Amino acid sequence: MSADAEGAHRHRPVRCLIAKVGLDGHDRGAHVIARAFRDAGFEVVYSGLHRAPEEVVQAAVQEDVDVLGLSILSGAHNTLVPKVVEGLKEYGAFDDTLLIVGGIVPEADRDDLHSMGVAAVFGPGTPMEETVEFVRENAPRRG
């Protein structure tokens, strides 16, 4: 591999999977964040609606993402997030994937999510710039 190709490969854009996990059918927020991430220069894959945790994990591993953003508005975060974390660990992908959650998550549940490995929780009304900057500053640099 030439030095130019090696350098270009090393500095690839942050790769993100935005996933709608569970039965939640509200995807407007996921589309908005996906667009903001694309506009920021990130590569973005969107899972579509109603994905099982196992599907999300497999997609994250297959796409070799740096960031996995789970959009959950159904209140099922305490059930779904642990399944995603467990799956990422099974595939050996947890330690090099920045896991973030967006949606309606009560303050009382956020510490539990953080303790299981969620880097940040972004609620409704969070400025897009805040989320983009968080990803820029915290996404693992691979490749």
TrEMBL record:
Keywords: Cobalamin, Cobalt, Isomerase, Metal-binding
Molecular function GO labels: cobalamin binding; isomerase activity; metal ion binding
SUPFAM superfamilies named among the record's database cross-references: Cobalamin (vitamin B12)-binding domain
Residue ranges of coiled coil: none
Cofactor needs: adenosylcob(III)alamin
Signal peptide: none
Pfam families named among the record's database cross-references: B12-binding
Family recorded in the similarity comment: Belongs to the methylamine corrinoid protein family.
Name of the protein this chain belongs to: Cobalamin B12-binding domain-containing protein
UniProt source species: Halobellus rarus
